[in-house]
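Hi there,

I know you've been waiting on this one. I reran it after we fixed the sequence typo, so this is the corrected version. Both the input and the resulting structure follow.
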Amino acid sequence: MTKISKCVIFGGTGFIGSNFAQKLSPHASEIIVITRDIESNKSLKMIPNLKLLPISISDSKSIRDILKDAEIVVNTVGILNESDQMNTFENIHFKFVQRLSQEIKTNKVKRFLHISSLNAKKDTMSDYLHTKGKAEDFILNEMNTYCNSTIFRPSIVFGEEDSFFNKFATLLKFIPIFPLACPSSKFQPIYVGDLTDYMINCISNPETYNKKIDTVGPKTYTFSELIKLTIKTMGIKRIIIPLNDFLSRIQAHVFQNLPGKLFTIDNYYSLKIDSVSENGYVGKTTIENKLPNYLNIKDKSEELRKKAGRRK
C-alpha cells in the first residue's frame, strides 16, 4: 500500500485501536490518537510516528482542527454498558458518529474505517446493537456521498488485552460456582491480529468502499464452551451452572444494579442473537492457539519464579 500522510484514530488507546495503530505505523507518516488520558497510555508513545492528543470526543471544534489534512479517519470508539447520562449507547455509538461525519465532510477526508458489531441493526431490543445499527445506516446512507467508508462487524474480539476472556478469567479466580446466563448463545470469535491485518488491507481496496463486512473467526462456540475453555486454560476447577432463559433474565435484572454492571438486561438481549456469520471475512487464528499465551496461570507463575531467580 502507498504511504499514508496522516491518520486520526478515535478509540486508539483501546484494545482494537491500539493494535491497529501499531500495524499501521510502518505505512503512515503521522498517526494521531485521540485520548482523554495521556498519562495512562504512555506506552503508545513507543509506536513510531504516533502522537497522543488530549481531546474529548465531544469537542467538535478541536476534532475539526485535528482532521485538517487527514487522509484517513478510524473510529473504534464503543462501550459495552452505559455508565452515566453522557456515556450512553445513543451518544457514543450514534451521535458521536454524526458529529464526526460533519468534521470529516468539512475537511474533505476521503477514507473512513469504522468498528461496529455483528448483528448491529435498528430493529432489535438491545440498545447496544440498536445504536450500532443506526450508526451503520447513517454511514452508508449519508457519508457515502463525500467519503469512502468501510464498516467492520466483528463477533467477540480476543487477544492479550481483550475484555472478554480477561474479564471472565478474573471472575473465575474467585467464584467456585459460576451461574452462566444464556449458555447456548453462539459466538465466532476473531483474533485481534487477524481483524487489524484485514483492516489495513482494506484501506486501499475499492471493493470494500461503502460496505459493511462481517468479520469472524474460523470456529463457532457456545457461551458455555468459551467459559469451559477459559477454565481449562487457567488450569483450575470450577462448577458451571447453566441458567435457563427465565433465570438468565432474572440474573440480568439483579446484576445490572450491582457495582460494575457485570451483566445487564441489555447484555441479555444481545445474547439472545447468535453472534455468528456465514458471510464476510473469516480469520484463521483459533482461540486454542492464543488463549494459553495470556490466561495460563501455571505458565505465568513459572515465568514469575524464573524472573525472581527461583526454580520452584
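Quick highlight: The CA atoms of residues 37 and 172 lie 30 Å apart.

Best,
R. S.
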